[in-house]
Amino acid sequence: MIINFGSINIDHVYQVDHMPKPGETLFSKGYDKFLGGKGMNQSIAVAQARGKLIHVGAVGTDGQWALDEIRGLGVSLDHIITLSDKPTGHAIISIDRKGENQIVIEGGANQSFTSSMIENSLKNNSGNGWVLLQNETNLAREIVQAAKEYNMPVAYAAAPFDAETVLSLISKIDLLAVNQGEAEALSRTLGVPLEEIPVSQLLVTLGQDGARFYKNNERFDQKAFQVEAKDTTGAGDTFLGSFLAMHDMGCTLAEALEYAAAASAIQVTRHGAATAIPSREEVTSFLHERKSG
Ligand code: RIB
């Protein structure tokens, strides 16, 4: 079981020739609206991998479109509240011709989590799987503290990266997920090399270079599958959600890493974040083709 205290965003996505420079006004080459939010992307990855999931989250009264998308992708709305005084979180995303992105987020309802949301989701699941969170919601410290009280390991995606927040949580995190830039920033802040960051499990996603996983002084390397990327938005979220789901369902680390690499390879060949995440069947047949081809 994965209990994900996760952000929900409406992603407004603009295709651009290049990223705008300071002071530059740019026409977009295309616009789309997608379901996103690092938290929801990770939840969809868990659900697509057929992992057990509770998504705890919040939207505003303008969030019906997002709720319909979430339900349509197989995630229960039971622990998602609708707030009357906050807008749904959203992201303004520019995608350039290489599929690279630049993202600005507005927290909205994601910043209005309450203690009762934590209590209601954990009270019947003590000791049952992982608590997952990212840095797009409020109450991170309370969520981590409650997870410890309910005897559940914590996986934390330190994105958007904030050194102070990571430092305040790190002693209680069991699995830390970062990308290469975040890993370097954290190493610098702590003054230690990557492999000495003090967590028992560290996942570093490296984009086209795959991923590295460190567990109790052991290192596992996962290569990326080569694909033509159209949109890399949510690729790291796809990797983490897929990996955690497979890990939680009892796969070996090598199997979980390979599944996650395949899921994110497929995801970047499609537009959008959450809706681009492949099903378990799609990942299985992709792996079969790549291994036999
Ligand atoms: O990681 C990608 C996500 O970051 C997007 O879906 C956007 O909503 C932002 O939260």
Topology, please?
Blueprint: E1 2-5, E2 9-15, E3 30-36, H1 38-48, E4 53-60, H2 64-72, E5 80-83, E6 89-95, E7 101-106, H3 115-122, E8 130-134, H4 140-149, E9 154-157, H5 163-169, E10 175-179, H6 180-190, E11 201-205, E12 211-215, E13 218-222, H7 235-248, H8 253-267, H9 280-292
Parallel strand pairs: 1-4, 1-8, 2-6, 4-5, 8-9, 9-10, 10-11
Antiparallel strand pairs: 2-3, 6-7, 11-12, 12-13
Helix pairs in contact: 1-7, 3-4, 7-8, 8-9
Overview of the molecule:
The protein is of the alpha/beta class. It has a single domain (2-18, 31-292), classed as 3-Layer(aba) Sandwich (UDP-N-acetylmuramoyl-L-alanine:D-glutamate ligase), CATH 3.40.1190.20. It is built from nine helices and 13 strands. The protein has helices spanning 38-48, 64-72, 115-122, 140-149, 163-169, 180-190, 235-248, 253-267, 280-292, and strands spanning 2-5, 9-15, 30-36, 53-60, 80-83, 89-95, 101-106, 130-134, 154-157, 175-179, 201-205, 211-215, 218-222. The strands form two sheets. A nine-stranded mixed sheet has the order 5-4-1-8-9-10-11-12-13, sandwiched between helices. A hairpin with a 2-residue loop joins β12 (211-215) and β13. α3 (115-122) runs parallel beside α4 (140-149) and α8 packs across α9 (280-292). The structure holds alpha-D-ribofuranose. Alpha-D-ribofuranose is lined by residues 7, 9, 11, 36-38, 41, 91, 103, 105, 136, 233-234, 237, 273. The site of alpha-D-ribofuranose (RIB) has 15 residues, from β2, α1 and β7.
